[in-house]
């Protein structure tokens, strides 16, 4: 019955997607320094007006916005090592390896104290990142910032390799949690739609349609996972079968699993957060080498949330004699040098025009 209702609601609507942004003329690439401090110098040089001083008719010039964004995007890199702000007042030693039968090698594994000013900036960046788009504005994610010594140590024990050191040494680490059971927030989302309509209650049937559409696309049914997973597979199979038997005369969307759908939305927030942090001179390191079940237990995260990505944030560790292009634990260099960027595949191998494989040419 629920599947039939979802299909009826979907096919009764004509969904069209339009671009929400108007694109200006292409701007030439800006060659700037890769160091995070250069982003701060650029902000001071451009002198953006504050929100309080701007009127409704004032806008930042498109050219200034383009220069700023290009600079921030080039300044961002994956920081392989963070500077410890301060050593904790109490250090603990834990066994990390055994030698012989009775000998145990002890090593200090306590995380560092966090810089409160960095925490404040990171929280501001998370607040800005909430403006990232999401499907139907459903926001199927949660953001968990870990900054205390105890929480950082607990998370570090669930990270692989030098990821654990980055969690311990950085000022904070943000866990981006993807909601695999978004349907449990149906009522909350309905109230959110009412509150966002200028204080007026949204039409009941329109609100129900939006809620059912999000439930259809998200596959996040409010059921135990051993039931929601097969139901999600069945719904996706039925919709795919309809498209096949009608020979695509009836256009139907390609649906994703609950985790895939929510992860797509959460990653938009993660990228927005990293760019916001870079604009404030903070270094970030996105990592996926984390043991999710252990992290959930250590930090009290419900099982409905997947952990596709964590991002450590802080001040990069540099010494006068250090190589700024320091490699990580697997030998990769992430482009922290003054005028260096990490390599990317050529534009012609990645960006196509009109037909897949057709080289895209910049307009003359």
Question: How would you portray this structure in words?
Answer:
It is a single chain. With 364 residues, this protein is α+β, with helices and mostly antiparallel strands. 40% of the residues lie in helices and 12% in strands. It has 12 helices and 6 strands. The chain has helices at residues 2-11, 36-46, 62-75, 116-129, 149-156, 163-169, 186-195, 204-218, 225-245, 258-279, 292-299, 347-350, and strands spanning 93-99, 103-108, 141-146, 172-179, 283-287, 305-314. The strands form 2 sheets. Strands 3-4-6-5 form a 4-stranded antiparallel beta sheet, with helices on both faces. A two-stranded antiparallel ribbon has the order 1-2. β1 and β2 form a beta hairpin. α7 (186-195) crosses α8 (204-218). 28% of the residues are buried.
């Amino acid at each position: 019955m629920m599947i039939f209702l979802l299909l009826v609601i979907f096919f009764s609507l004509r969904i069209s997607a339009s671009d929400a942004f108007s694109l200006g003329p292409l701007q030439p690439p800006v060659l700037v320094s890769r160091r995070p401090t250069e982003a701060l110098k650029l902000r001071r040089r451009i002198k953006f007006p504050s929100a309080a001083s701007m009127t409704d008719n004032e806008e930042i010039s498109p050219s200034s916005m383009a220069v700023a964004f290009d600079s921030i995007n080039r300044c961002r890199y994956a920081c392989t090592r963070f500077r410890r702000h301060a050593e904790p007042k109490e250090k603990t030693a834990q066994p990390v390896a055994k030698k012989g039968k009775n000998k145990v090698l002890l090593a200090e594994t306590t995380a560092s104290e966090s810089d409160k000013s960095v925490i404040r900036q990171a929280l501001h960046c998370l607040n800005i990142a909430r403006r990232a788009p999401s499907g139907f504005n459903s926001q199927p994610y949660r953001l968990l910032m870990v900054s205390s010594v105890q929480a950082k140590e607990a998370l570090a024990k669930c990270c692989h390799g030098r990821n654990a050191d980055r969690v311990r040494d950085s000022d904070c680490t943000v866990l981006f949690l993807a909601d695999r059971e978004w349907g449990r927030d149906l009522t909350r989302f309905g109230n959110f739609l009412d509150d966002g309509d200028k204080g007026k209650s949204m039409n009941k049937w329109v609100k129900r349609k939006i809620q059912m559409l999000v439930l259809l696309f998200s596959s996040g049914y409010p059921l135990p996972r051993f039931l929601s997973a097969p139901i999600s597979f069945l719904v996706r199979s039925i919709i795919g079968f309809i498209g096949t038997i009608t020979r695509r005369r009836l256009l139907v969307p390609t649906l994703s699993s609950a985790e895939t759908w929510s992860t797509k939305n959460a990653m938009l927030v993660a990228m927005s957060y990293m760019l916001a942090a870079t604009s404030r001179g903070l270094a970030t390191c996105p990592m996926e080498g984390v043991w999710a079940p252990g992290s959930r237990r250590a930090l009290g995260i419900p099982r409905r949330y997947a952990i596709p990505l964590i991002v450590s944030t802080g001040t990069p560790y540099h010494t006068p004699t250090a190589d700024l292009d320091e490699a990580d634990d697997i030998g990769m260099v992430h482009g922290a040098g003054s005028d260096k960027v990490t390599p990317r595949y050529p534009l012609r191998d990645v960006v196509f025009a009109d037909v897949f494989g057709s080289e895209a040419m910049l307009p003359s």
